[in-house]
């Protein structure tokens, strides 16, 4: 089963989507609408977002691409809900920068609280998986708490969704094809099998430091194949058997409108 | 998570905002891995599992083998509580967006490096007490002239005048609001004394700002 949050017919709804793409609301109502309909506005799929953990350089080939040694322990940074946006929504490119790239990532959504969770038990704490695009702006990198908040904590630069797939429906999260297209052209073609630290390892690691809680999310990093993105570009991040996340880039001025 | 914390959705902390600390570390910051001193505010989050309240016990941290860590430290800051949605505001207008002030304590492992996000050091459960209350902004006339004091078991260990901050409260709000839209109840801990204060198991720690309050917590593990 898949789970999402949408606005449909003026109502904000929590929905389940079955194997035949049939949509049922949490009230038990069946919606007569196709998943690709423009009548659906997709919201970020986690209803009460908690702490978002993201991994840097968690694929060996991406580490090489960025001229880093693969890390010996996870490189983790934190993000908050201001960065989230949904499927088919917009993300912005800040003014006056040279290089902003997508990062297609598998996300594990935490379903129950735990501390000191053992690796072999870790998936019991995962409600499901989704896809995110953890955009980065390389111009803003500085060597202090790198990647710093100016790079990774901006409004709208963590599209996620469209839905969460139950953990039980993904027998092996480390054997999934991962691709990104920009304006229909394939730019990233990898597999979650090349992840350095997998979800159970990361859960064991983080929960030795702190309590994980429902609604927390772990964004697991991206493989080789990043390119600069410009306003007007449409970026689609896909992970096999999980979902495809579409994002359109706009300028900073367009995004902030009156507040620009 | 401790119930009823004063923080809504986000606690942003500003590191390296003590001019004396920046001056002392200038040589270090010109070398690898930093290569040059920071050009922007150095920010970190205390996530929701860290949030706690006045009077609460702060857990003594464990290492990765499950043993008690050898050392913990504390810093204290003025907490600026956002009063209304704050998006891309100028420094001149920034203080109009402040709803109130409080005290934030940041318990952590000693700060050894600023190169990577310090998840292991900073994200410990119950390590960010905030309180004892939120004092309305109009009761605090000149927040940049306040002083933050830390006492351990009744003895003063640290005093930090906010006049010695590299960046002012208004400047920080403006800069941060151009990275992220801030919401009511979100808190910015604007600056800590560069020298964090060592604490031991069972210590009683009081973080005080005149006119804002005294935040009292006890270290666990005793």
UniProtKB/TrEMBL annotation, chain A:
InterPro entries: Fumarylacetoacetase-like_C, Fumarylacetoacetase_C_sf, HPA_isomer/decarb_C. It holds the Pfam family FAA_hydrolase. NCBIfam families: HpaG-C-term (TIGR02303). This is Fumarylacetoacetate hydrolase family protein. Residues 51-249 form the Fumarylacetoacetase-like C-terminal domain. The keyword Metal-binding applies. It comes from the Bacteria. GO terms for molecular function: hydrolase activity. Keywords: Hydrolase, Metal-binding. The lineage of its organism: Bacteria, Pseudomonadati, Pseudomonadota, Gammaproteobacteria, Oceanospirillales. It comes from Marinobacterium alkalitolerans.
UniProtKB/TrEMBL annotation, chain B:
It comes from Marinobacterium alkalitolerans. Coiled coil: none annotated. InterPro entries: Fumarylacetoacetase-like_C, Fumarylacetoacetase_C_sf, HPA_isomer/decarb_N. This is Fumarylacetoacetate hydrolase family protein. Keywords: Hydrolase, Metal-binding. One of its GO terms (molecular function) is hydrolase activity. Residues 10-219 form the Fumarylacetoacetase-like C-terminal domain. It comes from the Bacteria.
